[in-house]
Each structure stands twice: as C-alpha cells, then as structure tokens.
C-alpha cells in the first residue's frame, strides 16, 4: 500500500515538473572514467525514480522470506491463543477430553506454554488420568523454569483434590525449600495437615497462617482443630496450656471458638473459676453461642452465683436457646430440677438439638419419668440419624422460663 502511494506521488511530481520544463528540457552531462552520459533533466528524474523503485523491489525480495516467517509465526500465535481460549471454555463447561486436546495442540510453536500445560493437567485430572496429569506438570516444570512455583502449587492443589494428601505435603515441602513462606503454599499445607489429622504439625503452622490468605472462617476452623488436639491430651498441664495460648497470633486469641476451647481446658485442669471469669468478661462485649455453651459447662466457685448471672443475661436474650440450655445445666448443678425442666423445654421449643435432648433425658431420668426420658434420648438420636426415631413433638406442654432463682426447685 505504501509502495503504491510512493509511485503515485512520483508520477504526480513528474507531471508537475514536466509542466514547467516542457519548453526547455534542460541538459545533463555525466562523465565518469571515460563514460559519457547525456540526457535531459526529465530523463534524469525518471532514471532516479526508476532506480529507487528497483532498489525497493530488490529489498522487498531479500526480506520476503523473513516476512513470510513472521507472518506464519503470528498466525500460529493467533491460532494458539484461540486454542487456549477454546480449551479453557471447554474445561469450564466440563468437556475435559476436548479441552485437553485443544490446550496441548500446537504447543511446540508456543513461546509460553506454561498456562496450557497447567490447564491440561487439570483437564487430565478431571478425567481421572493422574499419570497424564503428572506428565503435563513435568513438561511445564521442564519447559518453564521460571514458573516452578506455579507448577508446584498447581500440583499440590490437584493432589489435594485427588485426596493424595501425603504427596501434596511432599510437593509443598519441596516448594518451601525454594520459596519459604509462600502464602498459597501455606494455605494448601494447612489443608493437607488437616486432612491427614496431623494436629501437631498444624499447630506449629498456626503462627504463619495469618499470611496464608485463608478465608477467616477456614483459618479459625483449622486453628480450632489443631488446638483441640493439644488441649485434649491427657498429660496437658496449666503451664503447657499457657505456652500453647501464648504461641498463637493475637488475632487467633480473639476467636470465640478458641476462647471457649481454652476455657473448657482450664475447667478440666481444675481452674473453673478462672475459666468462668474469662468467659463472663468476653461475653459482655462478644455474644457468641459457642461462648454461651462453654459458660454452661465450666463451674466457677459459686454455681448459684453463676446461675444468677445467666438469668440476668436472659432478660436481654429471652429467646436464646443456647442460653436457656446453659441455665438448665446450672439449675441441675444446683439441684433446681423444676427450673431446669422449664428452661430445657423452652430451649427445645426454640431449637431442638441433640445436646438439649440428651440433657432432657438425664433430667427426666433423675425425676423418675423413664418413659419420657427414653423418648427424649431417642428424639435426640433421631436428629443425628433420622432412621433412629422421630424427634419429640414440639407441641408438648412446655413451660416458660422461671424468672426467679428461688422458685420451682423441684
């Protein structure tokens, strides 16, 4: 296109010049090494233009192979991009075999095949072809050394997805040697330890989880799983508990579920008064069911005083099923059987849960109502496994909570 424009411009320029020199063509004499060339000025102009065009044509011929190769490479690159897009679409839509074919088609012409290999590995795994998955990952690792972190992360993720938890840990440890503290690797390693129930190793990983980019709920669940494993050990001591708690990051020490787990551990170690005091303090500004439930299980120095505190809270949370259950537990501790029954029935009316039915069955057994106690136990089991029994009908006469701690002692 540009060449044609230059030719047109040259012709127009020649016509323009010819218009002014038509009457006098001028005279040009070139003498070089005994050779003499004579011509008019328009003739010289035409010779120069022709020479220029000839040189341009020769240059074009010389560069033609390179231009052809560049055009072919560009076309292959465009086709490779189209195959990548089509492969990704098929992967998302579940056409895994077609996706794998498209993603690995013409890879030898690609300058950056890493993405294709990683996606092909995912497509292979969706087909259950783990050996082929590993082949694609190996090719990705070998052809793109700079992408080793991405390859190892993908490999670990796919191994976890395929329940190859031990292999995933080995892959992530390999990555840790290359790039310590990589956030995504920490998250995957925590999930692998959780799947393997390696609570000690997960516990050691907890201080680093703040940088793992995990969803907060998942991070808290992992921390709770690890901490419970340590707190449930028979040789746990108060000193060991203090050390474990101090090693946790500050943000984890504020998680209600972990606070509750620590309070229950303190209670088992004979420090129920400290556990009750801590839970009472936390509940003043963080009202969470898990903390309310823990408060019902720990025993302070004075259970009656503890019950009065719960009944004070009930004025603000009269329909909190967990708080009503906690009140029932404390009533049973202080042998206020009638109030315990009233609180339990109110709790069950709001939220029929297995723990409440189990406690209700124990209370009815204590009161000598064996038939109803059996029904309560079966109702609780029915919530866990519906084949066992139907839950106790909610329409049973349920008394409201008794406001005073002195009445209805049973």
- Gap from first CA to last CA: 104 Å
Question: If helices are DSSP runs of H or I spanning 4 or more residues, what is the number of helices?
Answer: 19
CATH topology of one domain: Serine Threonine Protein Phosphatase 5, Tetratricopeptide repeat
Low-confidence stretches: 392-410
By DSSP, the count of extended strands is 2
Percent of residues in beta strands?
Answer: under 5%
Q: Residue share in helices?
A: 55-70%
CATH C-level class of one domain is: Mainly Alpha
Shape: elongated
Structure, explained:
The chain is mainly α and 410 residues long. The chain is built from 19 helices and two strands. The protein has a domain of 91 residues: Serine Threonine Protein Phosphatase 5, Tetratricopeptide repeat (Alpha Horseshoe), CATH 1.25.40. The C terminus is likely disordered.
Features:
elongated, 19 helices, mainly alpha, two-stranded antiparallel sheet, 410 residues, Serine Threonine Protein Phosphatase 5, Tetratricopeptide repeat, disordered C terminus
In short:
With 410 residues, this protein is an all-alpha fold. Helix content is 70%, strand content 2%. α2 runs parallel beside α4 (114-126) and α12 packs parallel to α14.
